[in-house]
Amino acid sequence: MSDFEDEMDIDVQPSKDAIQFSSDKSSGKTKRLTADLPVEAEDNLPWVEKYRPNTLEDVSGHQDILATINKFVDANRLPHLLLYGPPGTGKTSTVLALARRIYGAQNMRQMVLELNASDDRGIDVVREQIKTFASTKQIFSMAPSNTGGSALGKFKLIVLDEADAMTSTAQMALRRIMERYTANTRFCIIANYTHKLSPALLSRCTRFRFSPLKEADIRSLIDHVIEKEQVLIQPEAVDSLVTLSKGDMRRSLNVLQACHASTAPHPSDIQEIMATLLSTSDVTSCLNTVNTLKSTKGLALADILAALSDQLQRLTVPAQTRITWLEGLAEIEFRLAGGGSEALQTGGLVGVLRNGCELMGENDTPMAP
Ligand SMILES: Nc1ncnc2c1ncn2[C@@H]1O[C@H](COP(=O)(O)OP(=O)(O)O)[C@@H](O)[C@H]1O
Ligand SMILES: [Mg+2]
């Protein structure tokens, strides 16, 4: 409905176009895809990509910016845009969602040139790639079924991500190009800091500042991901995650995924291994317990060593025992890193711990601090 109203006070567009125009949303039933990744690849995607907002409505926070951008699109009038602000606040996502809204998911490829200025920042890139892309005529706007012939669909979009990393010469060249091709292209410049951009560029763009995301926004996104991915996490850990991310959604998603994927042994498994090794004098049964735990929980000896040595430090034991353990564990770690067999070194671990225990004698039981 709002499309319709905005349409009226501008010009020529018949309302039919407006309806078709906003139908991108329903036609894009490939939910939350990033660029053009095949659906089956989604499961292996990093969460920052998997949960990248698909439409402008999915972008959290920044309500005022989104409203303005939507207005531009509804009015079929898009100025050059400059989005700036700290990382992980949704700048790239907003532009991609905008492009998807204008062209639809299928046509995005042909109509959007996405350059990451931090890898290709020389003058050559600006001259060649942008020039070639901006000066070629698009064939697709002639096809009848696309975007309903919306006026914006005729413009190509050039996205310059991380443009503040461009050399100043390249920025100069860009200025001319922007002017020359304004008839059929729109630029969208993304940067962290405006002070690294040439004032001439700044004055040609409509600026939007993306502030760090609010904790409430981050929390609701994180909660969503936790639920979808079935992450086991304590409420206090979520609190820290939200606070420590300091408004950077990318960081909080990456930390969450790293914690989720971490294969570090669970403290209770380490406790069980330690208790068995310290109390059972039958070496074979010790070895069996450790091997069973390793295979059922998928633990690696290297991780067990690290966690176990940490735990052993905390026990109060005679010096001789401690020396045996420390030397032995260090030796095993060294051999393991050098390619020693996992099975033999596991045996070595049992041997070292039992050795230390034998030294303690009958009545010296190890004590927790
Ligand atoms: N405003 C937001 N709403 C929803 N998700 C966001 C938002 N900002 C960032 N994200 C998440 O963080 C990731 C990185 O966002 P991105 O748009 O690339 O940030 P920027 O370009 O500002 O550094 C996205 O894939 C998305 O998962
Ligand atoms: Mg970005």
TrEMBL record:
GO BP terms: DNA repair; DNA strand elongation involved in DNA replication
Protein's organism: Aspergillus sclerotialis
Span list, region Disordered: 1-32
Protein name: Replication factor c
Keyword ATP-binding applies: yes
Family: Belongs to the activator 1 small subunits family.
The organism's taxonomic lineage, starting at the top: Eukaryota, Fungi, Dikarya, Ascomycota, Pezizomycotina
UniProt subcellular location: Nucleus
Superkingdom assignment: Eukaryota
